[in-house]
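Researcher: Please translate sequence to structure tokens.
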Amino acid sequence: MNTAHASPDNKGLAYREYVLLREEIRHKDNLVNARLSWLVSSQAFLLSDFTVSLNGSAQSLLPICAKLNVILATSLRVAGLVTVVASYLTIWAAIHRMARIRSLAGGFHPSHLPSVQSETGLRRMGFAGPVLIPVVFLAVWLALNVRRWLL
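Model: Translation complete:
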């Protein structure tokens, strides 16, 4: 059997197509993981710096340092929002691209190999982290910003 060509009924993927699609999905999945790691790292940094800046403005003996700490606290809140939104967009772009790649497979694959795509429910559960973690950070930064804007 020639594995380079699709099955005679044209309902299966050729082995090369299958490998290409799986590699593309693996690449996009790695991008999602990297982007989520960057997001969590940046948020840990920004939130810890935000906390330090809040404590610094209250303890500062010099008025200029207190003013700088207020500026820092404000800019960190904005940076947190911008970072979350930018990261979320890039994560969604990769997820959308994976969906397009999976649609190319059309549910067909070489019968002796696993499918290119998992069941819808499992796929959604797998994306819960990359989709919901940015929402949690976005909610935190929005709450901090809205509270500041209302005070």
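Researcher: Any highlights?
Model: The radius of gyration is 23 Å.
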